[in-house]
Design goal:
Family: Belongs to the ATP phosphoribosyltransferase family. Short subfamily.
Radius of gyration: 19 Å
Largest sheet: 6 strands, mixed
Subcellular location: Cytoplasm
Helix content: 25-40%
GO molecular function: ATP binding; ATP phosphoribosyltransferase activity
Distance between the termini: 31 Å
Number of domains: 2
EC number: 2.4.2.17
Order of helices and strands: EHHEEHEHEEEHEHEHEEHH
Low-confidence stretches: 202-206
InterPro entries: ATP_PRibTrfase_cat, ATP_PRibTrfase_CS, ATP_PRibTrfase_HisG, ATP_PRibTrfase_HisG_short
Structural class: alpha/beta
Strand content: 25-35%
Length: about 210
C-alpha cells in the first residue's frame, strides 16, 4: 500500500517537484504525466487538482496528504490536519489600491476573492468595511470604481504595478502547507511516516 498525495496543479505542483527531487525522490513519472490526473511513482500515488479540491479530497480520505496553499486553509477551513509549512509557495496577503484615490466619505469597499480572511482581518482591527466577493481579476474593481481597495495575494507585485495599483498595507505572509486526513494519520502511520519525515527536513528553518 502506498500513500496517496493530492497536489495543487500549477505553480505549487512545479515547486513541489523540485522539493521532492532535492530529497532524492524519482519524480520522472510526475514530470512526464502529460494530461493524466493520477500518477503512480515508486513511493506514492499522486492526484492533481485545484487547491480547494485538494483540501476536499484530503478531508474525505480520498488522499492521505495534500500539498496546498495556506490561503485555502484560512479561507475555507477544511476539516484536515495542518501538518507543517513547506519552504516554497511563499507570498503575502496585502491591501492594495489606487495611490491617488481620495478616502471615501462612505464605508470603505473592499473587493476580494477571500471574503472570510478579509472579514476576520478588519474585524480584529475594529474596522467596518463592505466586502465584495469577486472570482476573477480583483485588480479591475478599483480601476472601474466598484471598490476602493482590494485584498489579494501578492507575489512579485507586477500585476498591481501594471494596473497602477500599489500595496497600501501588508497583512501577513503565507507558504505552501502539507495537510493530512485525520484518520490516515492514525491508520496509515507506518506508510506515511517516512514520507512526512522527509518533508520535515526544512521545518526548523522556515
Amino acid at each position: 500500500m502506498k500513500p496517496v498525495i493530492a497536489l495543487t496543479k500549477g505553480r505549487l505542483e512545479k515547486q513541489f517537484m523540485e522539493f521532492l527531487q532535492e530529497r532524492g525522490y524519482d519524480v520522472r513519472p510526475l514530470l512526464n504525466k502529460g494530461r493524466k490526473l493520477q500518477v503512480e511513482t515508486d513511493d506514492f500515488f499522486a492526484v492533481f487538482a485545484k487547491g480547494i479540491d485538494v483540501a476536499t479530497y484530503v478531508e474525505h480520505g480520498i488522499a492521505d496528504i495534500g500539498i496546498v496553499g495556506e490561503d485555502i486553509l484560512l479561507e475555507c477551513q477544511p476539516d484536515v490536519f495542518d501538518l507543517l509549512p513547506l519552504p516554497f509557495g511563499k507570498c503575502r496577503f496585502a491591501i492594495a489600491g489606487d495611490p491617488t484615490a481620495v478616502n471615501p466619505m462612505r464605508k470603505q469597499r473592499i473587493a476580494t476573492k477571500y471574503p472570510n480572511i478579509t472579514t476576520k482581518y478588519f474585524r480584529e482591527r475594529g474596522k467596518s468595511v463592505d466586502i465584495l466577493k469577486l472570482e476573477g481579476s480583483v485588480e479591475l474593481a478599483p480601476l472601474l470604481g466598484l471598490a476602493d481597495d482590494i485584498v489579494d495575494i501578492v507575489e512579485t507585485g507586477s500585476t498591481l504595478k501594471e494596473n497602477g495599483l500599489v500595496v497600501k498595507e501588508e497583512m501577513f505572509t503565507l507558504s505552501a502547507r502539507c495537510i493530512a486526513n485525520r484518520n490516515s494519520l492514525k491508520l496509515k502511520k507506518a506508510i506515511l511516516s517516512p514520507l512526512l519525515d522527509s518533508f520535515r527536513i526544512e521545518e526548523a528553518v522556515i
